[in-house]
Fold these 2 entries.
Entry 1:
Amino acid sequence: MAHPASGLPRRFVLLLGLGTLAAGVLAACTPKGTDSMPPSSTPPTGIAPSAGGGNGPTSSGKRVLLAYFSRAGENYHYGSRVDLDVGNTQVLAEMLAGAVSVDVFRIVAADPYPHDYDQTVARNLEEEQDDARPRITGDLPDLGGYDTILLGSPVWNSQPPMIMRTFIDALDWTGKTVQPFVTYAVSRMGAVQRDYTQWCQGATVGDGLAIQGETVNDARDQTEDWLRQIKLV
Ligand SMILES: Cc1cc2nc3c(=O)[nH]c(=O)nc-3n(C[C@H](O)[C@H](O)[C@H](O)COP(=O)(O)O)c2cc1C
């Protein structure tokens, strides 16, 4: 059965999570060169102003929080594996934060996810089956001072990692605009927009930005287009 949001069969996505991708589909993912962005060191948790300004309204007058989760370590890469010093979603988050005035909050798991890809897949499946709320390190931000939240994560098993649910459940989303952004291997947005619409009670959730993880270093034009489209620049 096709997964409702991704258009991919659910079983396909599960297989991807387990590291078994059909060669035909992979052939469709043409590798691109990386016009590299310097990897940053692991940023601290807690609110930090962005290189794009931070702590002030955007040119549109909106106060924006960028909150994201990303996992460095062994990951999927065009059917093979790669060791990422900086997670793909972190690269994307930093690109966005460099282009617009935002405060940045990095969601860090209190119990870090394994370096190993297959172990992470297994843990994620368990967390989904248990409807878990993996704990987050440190104090969470107060959304009171923000109009818009850019909410970023990888796509895991065609949906947001459960730690995004922990973050969302702890905060008051009433009246907020949520603009999702994700990195993925094949699922594009998957069910992320649909899930955030259900989880962020009282918020308006935009269509979102989805960037294939393997191409994230080349995503600057897409991020700038998206920021213009959602009227933050
Ligand atoms: C546990 C796990 C599950 C994943 N499931 C999917 C999936 O269902 N669909 C997909 O397109 N990519 C999937 N991926 C690939 C990631 O979404 C992709 O590599 C992403 O760019 C990783 O971002 P990060 O480095 O910020 O964690 C999965 C990766 C992991 C580790």
Entry 2:
Amino acid sequence: MRIRKLREDDIGNIVAMIHDVMGPDDAKKALQDIRISLDKHIYKFEEFYVLEVDSEIVAAGGFWSLKYDPDIARLDWFVVPRKHQRRGFGRMLMKHIVSRAKMLKLRLILAETSDGQQYKAAREFLMKNSFKKAAVIKNYWNDGSSAVYFIRRLKK
Ligand SMILES: CC(C)(COP(=O)(O)OP(=O)(O)OC[C@H]1O[C@@H](n2cnc3c(N)ncnc32)[C@H](O)[C@@H]1OP(=O)(O)O)[C@@H](O)C(=O)NCCC(=O)NCCS
């Protein structure tokens, strides 16, 4: 088992994972985002990792911040393929992301999600990983669901 940085040849695989767990619309958005992320100069930092077991990707996710953001990170696409869920892989990758954010001396990690039923696992997962619900914006997403923001504060 190892955690390594994203390689360009992982992108197809990760977009397929997002298609599997979140659907085609999110897969399209992720493909665009991950391509943009290859153009590093718009970011203050951008890091994306995969957790591999026997050369198979069992979790993927990262974080980023734009040039003029304060000392915070935004959680990027974070996904565990359906067949590997509830085996602790998400938790392991999150632990790595949190330790990287601490090394960068960031104050908090911000995660954006939804109050839709489809995102229940994400909300539970974030709370289990010491994120706290910080804000809700009603009728935010195109389907009328609310945006729910979670933060995990990091000691400096
Ligand atoms: C959310 C997600 C990343 C969790 O990954 P995972 O590897 O299955 O999570 P873990 O096995 O590390 O679970 C850690 C804890 O999170 C909570 N959790 C995870 N999935 C859950 C679910 N479906 N329902 C309720 N709680 C859940 C549990 O407390 C779990 O601990 P437990 O298994 O001991 O009860 C995964 O379900 C996923 O990819 N979902 C779709 C994509 C998504 O919503 N991404 C946004 C994530 S912020």
